[in-house]
Design goal:
Number of strands: 3
Helix content: 40-55%
Number of helices: 6
Distance between the termini: 30 Å
Largest sheet: 3 strands, parallel
Order of helices and strands: EHHEHHHEH
Strand order of the largest sheet: 1-2-3
């Protein structure tokens, strides 16, 4: 059975920013990868306060790439080193009132371009 490995949801669910541990643990089952960043401080508050998923979203749990705790250069390097050849996509949760999705997508793209020398 295949798995969609979402970097932000991994951090949110595990409380651990060491996404490489998750990639290693599930590497034989990963069919797709979603690149999403996560604010560890908000994840901790969410657990402590018992917020539901949408409360966590409204508090900005999933931020634009490079603004949370996921080390994307290391993640992308690991995928390359493991010869991962399936889909990788950026997933950005933007609720109404949290900004414009297009501008957020452009900033995420710029971030990935700024780090590509780390994994190219």
């Amino acid at each position: 059975m295949g798995l969609v490995f979402d970097t932000g949801h991994y951090v949110f669910g595990s409380g651990d920013c060491d996404v490489l541990a998750g990639l290693d643990r599930f590497k034989g089952r990963i069919w797709y990868v979603h690149l999403k960043d996560c604010r560890q401080d908000i994840a901790r508050m969410s657990r402590d306060q018992g917020w539901d998923y949408f409360q966590s979203l409204r508090h900005g749990i999933f931020c634009e790439l490079g603004q949370g705790c996921v080390d994307f250069p290391k993640v992308l390097r690991r995928l390359k080193d493991e010869c991962y050849e399936n889909y990788v996509l950026v997933e950005q949760d933007v609720l109404p009132g949290m900004g414009a999705p297009k501008e957020s997508a452009l900033r995420n793209r710029e971030y990935l371009l700024s780090i590509e020398h780390n994994f190219a």
